Amino acid sequence: MILLSYAWGMAAQDFLSTRTVTHKSSSQGSSYSASVEFPTEGSQAVLKNVRQWIGYMLDTEGNFGADIRRQLEDSCNEFLRNASKTSREIEIEREYEDSRCVTFTATITDKGAETWVTEDCATFSKRDGHRLSLEEIFNCSEEDIKNLIWQYKGNTKMDVDSPADVFPMNAGFTDGWVIVTAPAYNSPATAFRLRYEEITSFLKSSSNGYYTP
Q1: Which residues contact 148 (CB under 8 A, 6 or more apart)?
Q2: Torsion over CA: 153, 34, 49, 124 (sign)
Q3: Which long-range contacts (CB under 8 A, 24 or more apart) does 197-202 make?
Q4: Tens-digit pLDDT profile for residues 90-113
Q5: d(CA 39, CA 51)
Q6: With contact defined as beta carbons under 8 Å apart, do 204 and 137 qualify?
Q7: From CA 50, how far away is CA 102, in angstroms rounded?
């Protein structure tokens, strides 16, 4: 996690306060383990939307709010109720924050006969709390974004044979990187990290920092 401050006047209260909450349980050969960095103080608009996104990642839509322990219990109980000798590990953390935006990432690993990994990256504007879209981050065509994912995929195994068939889903900022998610082999969504300084010509311009509202 990296917190950046700018000389042009960011107040300490602009940053979120968080606490990390964990939950572990097992039943009949299946197990569940989660670690969530949960926002506790900050802009109400940001808190609401980050918590809603966390609820979505935990598959507890409708149980939004400050009671993260209850959400984890619900998430765990629902998983174990339907699991059959499988395990789930969830990690959600704040990965980046400055005075204009905050980014949380999630990794969900399901292990059974096969291993499936689902990742997401969500950047929220501090102006009004909304989650940034691909269109707010990139200033290029979808075809260009597909090609960038292909260029930076490294050793990630894909389910498609060409960049034309890649499906960009979400994007966000971390320190020095732009993360874009797209399906890959055994992954409904994989986080692809694109080096920020190498792709600036494809991004929306910003007067200071990664994002200008």
Answers
A1: 180, 194, 199, 202
A2: negative
A3: 199/148, 202/138, 202/139, 202/140, 202/144, 202/145, 202/148
A4: 999 999 999 999 999 999 999 999
A5: 7
A6: yes
A7: 9
Please compute Rg for the chain using Cα positions.
Answer: 18
User: Which residues are bridge partners to 101 per DSSP?
Assistant: 125
**Please, which residues have CB within 8 angstroms of residue 49's CB and are 6 or more apart in sequence?**
124, 129, 130, 131
* CB of 47 closer than 8 Å to CB of 124: no
Tokens linked to 117: 């990994």
Backbone angles phi, psi at 167, to 5 degrees: -120, 95
Lowest mean pLDDT among 59-68, 128-137, 156-165, 178-187: 59-68
| Residue 89 structure tokens | 């590990």
d(CA 182, CA 152) in angstroms, rounded, equals 12
pTM for the predicted model, two decimal places: 0.91
Q: Is the pLDDT of residue 28 over 50?
A: yes
pLDDT tens-digit map of 131-155: 999 999 999 999 999 999 999 999 9
